[in-house]
């Protein structure tokens, strides 16, 4: 089922948002930034940009710009020659040839330490969040933060190109992986630093066998989902679980994503293990519980969207409607000075949870005015503990500064109010279930009558494409179905979705990226009809897993090798190191009298963390202390400048422009 008739993809027309633009890449970015740089390259080229001549400098501020054939390479001063722990990516366009230089770093400016994914996960608290369900800080088995930062860096370049078309060229932009991570993790940080009440986080040790994914009697590992208590209660009662254990586990299960922990009672897993998966599916169908068997990367690469390497967004142009007034050209309506790229633009949202609100938080941070449509009485998420001044800290982290209008979209009066709200807007974003927009008569055709130039955006779980019935569209179910759980594993090597909402976080950033591309297409004239942008959690999973899925048709189906990084206890704490243990110790000159591959991590207990960090970084090996409490992040001398404080700590936007 879809919420709109078939559309003509913008990607099949001759005009794309970045047609005529050239992307300028470094010959070889630092190793720790290779994944983020590849995401930027991939997304810019999907939007129409082409590679610029590697021997040409285009930035007007350099002396080489006077000579279009200035040589490049070490010692030439060319802007795309990597120097230190950063890389520069350029985007020039036909409208403003000087273009924009984006400086992408691992750590924030001023931190020269070696950088990689493992140490970024340690320093930003992601490792601690992911490890809550596993008994201690643990790296993800995928380059999540680097992928996230690549999307955020692409946002910066799209916003800069849009700003240039609107009268304010952006010459330079800066993004760091660390700042992108903190901004995306803001709900978790806000909850950890809320002043009114402490966040309730279960204390280790955790019973890993008690939480999903469960294992059936015939060995199928599966994830479960219940959005209300009744399906949960009925399902487990039918499996034979005691009523007391069912009731006592519900609260922990319902709060598992907010807290990244789910200490359930082991009898649930034991009851599930008495039934075959086919029996459990029948029980789930009868009770309304959501079930999804974990799929492997080998399963996933056979899917059509992976085989055809679908874009992470569907950017589509609808035909002009002769019965509607012309779409106004907005370029002349903006002020001559724009403090931020989206100043003067208005976004209306009807979204819940994390994916949609994060997308509009990104657009607001870029300067847009954001109006939230909430049901009468307000979004229930406002009441979720911990609270700051009576409002959920998590909710505030994503929605502070947005205007709110209480509208019952199920009524005729509410639909008229929505139309009035979008009448002067540029973008409308919703996260309703498939078919809901059409049922409410609030689809793109309905709202186009109120605002012909409106960009209509939908952030979903499973894309628009019809197919076999899918499980409930929540983050862990998409992780289970998409193969993400096959890369994010438990300490014993079993596949398991992370309780950190990885795809909600990445999906929200991709939704903002798609909307920026649509705004650019409208402003540049690449699209003259109505525009629609569809993004999804499934699309986010393709972006995250693309390195593992690409080219696997020619390879045997094997589990990807684990990352080289590791976590080790020291004499006074924990450190994360971006190399194999024996390699790290050898590089520091440690004699390792009884070293073996198995006991090498134990050698780090011989000295305090500061000593090891100094020795490892001096040897060029990334190493960082592991943040075990997210409340420590705003107090860190290197990270404190990237937070504001208003009842809780909130990370600042990850980009800067000049």
Return Rg in Å. 25 Å
Structural class: alpha/beta
Largest sheet: 8 strands, mixed
Average pLDDT taken over every residue: 85
Share of β-strand residues: 5-15%
Number of helices: 24
Q: Total strand count, please?
A: 24
Describe what you observe in this structure:
With 658 residues, this protein is of the alpha/beta class. Helices cover 34% and strands 15% of the residues. The strands form six sheets. Strands 1-10-18-17-16-11-12-15 form an eight-stranded mixed β-sheet, sandwiched between helices. It has a six-stranded mixed β-sheet with strand order 3-2-4-5-6-24. A three-stranded antiparallel β-sheet has the order 7-8-9, sandwiched between helices. Helix 23 crosses helix 24. The two termini are 45 Å apart.
Task: Produce a short descriptive summary.
The chain contains 24 helices and 24 strands.
Summarize the topology.
Elements: E1 8-9, E2 22-24, H1 34-46, E3 50-51, E4 86-92, E5 100-105, H2 117-123, H3 126-131, H4 144-165, E6 172-176, H5 177-184, H6 186-193, E7 214-215, E8 221-225, H7 229-239, H8 243-254, H9 256-259, H10 266-272, H11 277-287, E9 290-293, H12 297-300, H13 304-307, E10 313-318, E11 346-350, H14 355-365, E12 369-374, E13 387-388, E14 391-392, H15 393-399, E15 403-406, H16 412-422, E16 427-430, H17 436-440, H18 444-448, E17 455-460, H19 475-482, H20 484-487, H21 502-524, E18 530-536, H22 537-549, E19 566-569, E20 574-577, H23 581-588, H24 609-618, E21 623-625, E22 643-645, E23 649-651, E24 655-657
Parallel strand pairs: 2-3, 5-6, 11-12, 11-16, 12-15, 16-17, 17-18
Antiparallel strand pairs: 1-10, 2-4, 4-5, 6-24, 7-8, 8-9, 10-18, 13-14, 19-20, 20-21, 22-23
């Amino acid at each position: 089922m879809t919420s709109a008739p078939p559309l003509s993809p913008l990607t099949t027309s001759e005009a794309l948002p970045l047609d005529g633009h050239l992307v300028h890449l470094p010959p070889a970015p630092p190793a720790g930034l290779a994944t983020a740089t590849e995401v930027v390259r991939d997304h810019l080229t999907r939007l129409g940009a082409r590679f610029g001549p590697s021997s040409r400098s285009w930035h007007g501020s350099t002396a080489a710009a006077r000579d279009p054939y200035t040589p490049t390479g070490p010692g030439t001063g060319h802007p795309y020659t990597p120097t230190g722990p950063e890389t520069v990516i350029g985007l020039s366009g036909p409208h403003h040839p000087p273009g924009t230089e984006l400086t992408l770093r691992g750590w924030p400016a001023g931190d020269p330490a070696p950088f990689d994914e493992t140490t970024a996960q340690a320093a930003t608290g992601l490792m601690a969040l992911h490890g809550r369900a596993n008994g201690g800080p643990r790296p993800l088995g995928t380059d999540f933060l680097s992928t996230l930062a690549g999307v955020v860096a692409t946002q910066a370049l799209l916003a800069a190109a849009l700003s240039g078309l609107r009268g304010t060229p952006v010459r330079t932009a800066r993004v760091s992986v660390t700042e992108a991570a903190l901004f995306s993790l803001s709900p978790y940080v806000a909850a950890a630093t809320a002043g009114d009440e402490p966040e309730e986080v279960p204390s280790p040790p955790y019973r890993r066998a008690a939480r999903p994914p469960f294992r059936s009697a015939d060995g199928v590992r599966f994830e479960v989902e219940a959005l209300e208590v009744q399906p949960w209660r009925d399902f487990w009662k039918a499996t034979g679980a005691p009523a007391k254990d069912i009731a006592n586990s519900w609260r922990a299960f319902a709060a598992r994503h907010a807290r990244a922990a789910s200490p359930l009672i082991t009898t649930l897993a034991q009851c599930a293990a008495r039934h075959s998966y086919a029996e459990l599916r029948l029980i789930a169908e009868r009770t309304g519980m959501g079930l999804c068997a974990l799929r492997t990367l080998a399963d996933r690469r056979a899917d059509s969207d992976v085989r055809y390497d679908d874009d992470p967004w569907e950017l589509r142009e609808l035909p002009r409607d002769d019965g509607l007034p012309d779409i106004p050209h907005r370029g002349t309506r903006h002020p001559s000075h724009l403090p931020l790229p989206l100043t003067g633009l208005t976004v209306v949202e009807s979204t819940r949870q994390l994916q949609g609100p994060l997308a509009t938080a990104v657009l607001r941070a870029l300067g847009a005015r954001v109006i939230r449509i909430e049901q009468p009485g307000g979004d229930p998420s406002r009441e979720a503990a911990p609270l700051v001044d009576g409002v959920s800290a998590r909710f505030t982290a994503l929605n502070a500064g947005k205007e709110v209008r209480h509208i019952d979209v199920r009524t005729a009066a509410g639909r008229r109010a929505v139309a009035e709200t979008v009448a002067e807007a540029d973008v409308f974003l919703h996260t309703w279930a498939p078919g809901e927009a059409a049922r409410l008569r609030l689809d793109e055709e309905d709202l186009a009558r109120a605002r012909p130039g409106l960009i209509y955006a939908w952030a979903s779980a499973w894309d628009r494409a019809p197919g076999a019935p899918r499980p409930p569209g929540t983050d862990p179910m998409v992780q289970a179905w998409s193969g993400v759980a096959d890369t994010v594993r438990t300490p014993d090597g079993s596949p398991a979705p992370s309780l950190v909402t990885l795809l909600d976080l990445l999906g929200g950033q991709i939704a903002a990226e798609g909307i920026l591309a649509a705004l650019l297409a409208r402003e540049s004239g690449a699209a003259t009809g109505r525009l629609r942008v569809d993004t999804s959690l499934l699309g986010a999973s393709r972006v995250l897993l693309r390195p593992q899925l690409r080219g696997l048709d020619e390879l045997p189906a094997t589990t990807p090798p684990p990352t080289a990084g590791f976590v080790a206890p020291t004499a006074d704490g924990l450190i994360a190191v971006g190399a194999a243990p024996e390699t790290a110790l050898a590089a520091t000159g440690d004699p390792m009298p009884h070293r073996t591959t198995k006991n090498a991590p134990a050698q780090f207990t011989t000295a305090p963390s500061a000593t090891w960090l100094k020795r490892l970084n001096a040897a060029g090996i990334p190493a960082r202390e592991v943040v075990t409490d997210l409340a420590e992040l705003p107090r860190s001398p290197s990270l404190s400048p990237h937070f504001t404080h208003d009842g809780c700590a909130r990370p600042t936007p990850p980009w800067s422009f000049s």
